[in-house]
Structures are given as C-alpha cells and as structure tokens.
Specification:
By secondary structure, the protein is of the alpha/beta class. Helix content is 39%, strand content 20%. The protein has 5 helices and 5 strands; from the N terminus they run βαβαβαβαβα. It has a 5-stranded parallel β-sheet with strand order 2-1-3-4-5, with helices on both faces. Strand 1, helix 1 (18-28) and strand 2 form a beta-alpha-beta unit. The longest helix is centred in the last third of the chain and has 12 residues, at 116-127.
C-alpha cells in the first residue's frame, strides 16, 4: 500500500452527466481521493460531510444549479473556503461566468471541451495555491 494514500487530497465532482463524471474520475483518481455527486443538493451534502480540498462542478444541474450550490457552500463556515472550479457545457450564456466570478470561492471557469489534462493541471494548480 502506497504511503500517499493517507494524505491524498479529496476532490468532489458534482455533475449530472455520468460520462463526464467518469472521465474526471479516470483522470484524477490516481492522484486524488475522488467523490462524486449527481446534483447540486447531493453536492452540498457531500461537501459538508467530506469537506473536500476542491470541488469541480457543473453549471446546469437538477434540483439546484451550480451557482446556487456555490452560494450555499459560501454560506457555511466549514465549506466556504473550498476552492471551486466550474465546468460548463459549450452552449453557455456569456453572463454566467460573471455571475460565478462574484462568488469568492470560484477560482476557475472551464469549458467541458477543455482537454482533460488541462483540467487536471488546473486542479493541481489550485490545490498548490495557484
């Protein structure tokens, strides 16, 4: 068993698109401990339970949207400092990134068409204080 297991950073991927979640899981599970949620409500619940080191979240989700989820996390003391990377489908309204930029914990706004290795690099950058 590897020494790194105990202190691997935790990542929560919140997305109702199963394929995208699995893609992220494959890309990140070697370096990180991965958790997934399929909508914003489950995402908030899991974030509160596991307090991940970073959250990757979709914008459009059932129950509560990404922006609502970001605001709910910011409102709670134990989750307000978790950095968030927002991932969005390409048909995105231009005003949406501006909406998220007002949220203090949102660090990056990436398109889902961004190459997976670039998303992984961004995650690592944020986790190392970038």
């Amino acid at each position: 068993r590897g020494i790194r297991m105990g202190n691997r950073k935790k990542i929560l991927v919140v997305d109702d698109n199963q394929n995208f979640s699995q893609l992220m899981q494959c890309a990140l599970e070697d370096d990180f401990e991965l958790f997934t949620a399929s909508d914003g409500l489950e995402g908030v619940k899991k974030a509160t339970e596991i307090v991940p080191d970073i959250i990757l979240m979709d914008v459009m989700m059932p129950n509560i949207s990404g922006i609502e989820m970001a605001r709910m996390l910011t409102a709670e003391e134990e989750t307000r400092d978790i950095p968030i990377i927002v991932l969005t489908g390409s048909h995105m309204d231009k005003g949406v990134p501006n909406l998220f930029k007002q949220e203090r914990n949102v660090r990056y706004f990436l398109n889902k068409t961004t190459p997976v290795m670039e998303i992984v690099a961004t995650v690592k950058k944020v986790l190392h204080g970038g």
